Amino acid sequence: MSTDRKAKIDAAKKKSGGTGANAIVVGGIVAIVAVILVVAGVIWSAQQDKGGDGSAPASTEMGQPFNPYPDAELVEGAPTVHVYEDFRCPACKIFEDAFGQSITELAQDGKIALQVHLKTVIDTNFNQDNSAIAASNALCAADQGVWTEYHKALFDNQPQEPNEFSQEQFEQLAEQAGLSGEKLDAWTECAQNETYVDYVKSVDDQSVKDGVTGTPSLSVGDTKVNWGSFATEDGQPDIDAFEEVLTSGEVPQDRVAQQ
Amino acid sequence: MRASSRVLDAVGLLARLILGGALLLAGGLKVGNPVASARAVQAYDVLPFELARYVGYGLPYAEVVLGALLVLGLFTRVSAAIGALLMVVFVVGIAQAWARGLTIDCGCFGGGGQVAENETKYGREIVRDIGFALCGAWLLWRPQSMLSLDRYLLGR
Q1: In the predicted structure, residue A13 carries a pLDDT above the cut 60
Q2: Where are the alpha helices (DSSP H) in B73-116?
Q3: Which of A73, A208, A256, B55 is the most exposed, having the fewest neighbouring CB atoms within 10 Å of its CB?
Q4: Angstrom distance (rounded) from CA B139 to CA B11
Q5: How far out from the chain centre does Cα A37 lie?
Q6: Domain-wise residue ranges, chain B
Q7: Whether A60 contacts A112, CB under 8 Å
Q8: CA distance A190 to A186
Q9: Could you tell me how far CA B137 lies from the centroid of its own chain?
Q10: Could A19 and B155 be called an inter-chain contact, meaning their C-beta atoms sit closer than 8 Å?
Q11: Torsion A226-A228-A232-A238 (CA) sign
């Protein structure tokens, strides 16, 4: 049996004209196919993930955060507060429900300089683009002067992860946010063109580069805040303590987020 | 003599299927989602940001190709060497993340990126990848195996 098998193998070797040349040809083909496949994969991936050259909102630049209240008159020494959020992230909804109103009022009153970084964490996790579209639509709403209302409406109607906002929902919420007539038309055009989707993706990219991968994330100045530390013992948000930290710009050591 | 070489060939087949199957699965699960794959590599915080992005783009395809070659048993020794090397690189990457106190998912089979501190699985991930690397090491030492294209196509 053993010699039988050996004979067969030898016969096969002869038939293919020895082993050397054959292996080199096959190896060459395999190597070329492998390289083409990987290179094509990288090119396709880059195409899928391309930043694009869409525009940023007028008040900011690609990769840079957005200030929803540029007209607020800042009090002297108002700290800069960075909020990183994704309209479809469940923890962001908890954060918004607890502190959203506080942040909005402080920013409108000029007690903090608010910088919003719109991220797309849920898109990345589930290979979708609905977070980016929601954020783009919110910026379209900001163009029409209803950022606060639309921002809140999106969080109030957040679909359960990983479900998406529907087109009808986006439009309905725009009306609910108070848009009508020409302003609604302008919002609709802005939304349909996915005007700020590329900008939102560029912000997500920049924030990852800066080390902020998760949402929601809150920083006062350069200090990352553990916002969960503002829950009181009965699970309610401690708004007074929260506002004290934001407006003073000083984060006590026990409220600094790890890392 | 014959019986023992058969056993060794069977072990070779098993090593090929384990390492090749893992690579095929790991690559296949990541192929459709380039953004997540890029983010997973960036989360290790080792390579420059833009380079990490392209490694993230290419890695799933390289894994699929390597995995397919191993499962088919074509150029087993070279494929196993690259596969084992890849696993060693993964182990080093995970170990440095662990040592530096990062809290990330390895992103080996999709997923990846930052996770909560109590959700890291560094130890398990490292042991698993060392296991895969050992499969590669076996094939590097003895690439002959059952049911391989090396044997049927190239008469090795």
Answers
A1: no
A2: 76-99
A3: A73
A4: 9
A5: 30
A6: 2-154
A7: no
A8: 6
A9: 12
A10: yes
A11: positive
- Tokens representing B28 are 């296949």
B153 lies within 8 A of chain A by CB: yes
Predicted confidence at residue A1, as pLDDT, reads 45
State the complex-level ipTM. Answer: 0.88
Interface of A with B in 189-228 (CB under 8 A): 208-209, 213-214
Kindly report, residue by residue over A225-243, the tens digit of the pLDDT: 999 899 888 888 999 999 9
Q: Which of A38, A49, A123 has the CB atom closest to B61's CB atom?
A: A38
Chain-chain contact of A258 with B156 (C-beta, under 8 angstroms)? no
Q: Is B42 on the interface with A (CB under 8 A)?
A: yes
CA torsion through residues A230, A231, A237, A241, sign: negative
What is the amino acid identity at position B80? A
Q: Which of A3, A25, A26, A30 to mutate to test the interface with B (most CBs of B within 10 A)?
A: A30
- Range among A50-59, A204-213, B105-114 with highest mean pLDDT value: A204-213
Does the CB of B39 have a partner CB in chain A at under 8 Å? yes
Among B9, B47, B57, pick the best mutation site for testing chain A contact (most A Cβ within 10 A). B57
Q: Which residues in chain A have their CB less than 8 angstroms from residue B65's CB?
A: 34, 37-38
B36–chain A nearest CA distance, Å: 5
Contact flag A208-B42 (C-beta cutoff 8 Å)? yes
**DSSP per residue, A62-126:** TTS-B-S-TTS-PPTTPPEEEEEE-TT-HHHHHHIIIIIHHHHHHHHTTSSEEEEEE--HHHHHH
Which amino acid type is present at position A93?
K
Domains and CATH numbers, chain A: 2-48 (no CATH), 80-255 (3.40.30.10)
Q: How far apart are CA A82 and CA A114, in angstroms?
A: 6
Which among A140, A206, A120, A128 is positioned nearest to A164, based on CA atoms? A128
C-alpha span between A214 and A122 (Å, rounded): 10
Q: Which of B34, B36, B65 lies nearest to residue A38, judging by beta carbons? A: B65
Burial per residue of A164-199, b for 16 or more beta-carbon CB atoms within 10 angstroms, e otherwise = bbeeebbbebbebbbbeeebbeebbebbeebbbbbb
* Partner residue opposite A37 with nearest CB, options B53, B61, B113: B61
Query: What is the per-residue pLDDT for B153?
Result: 83
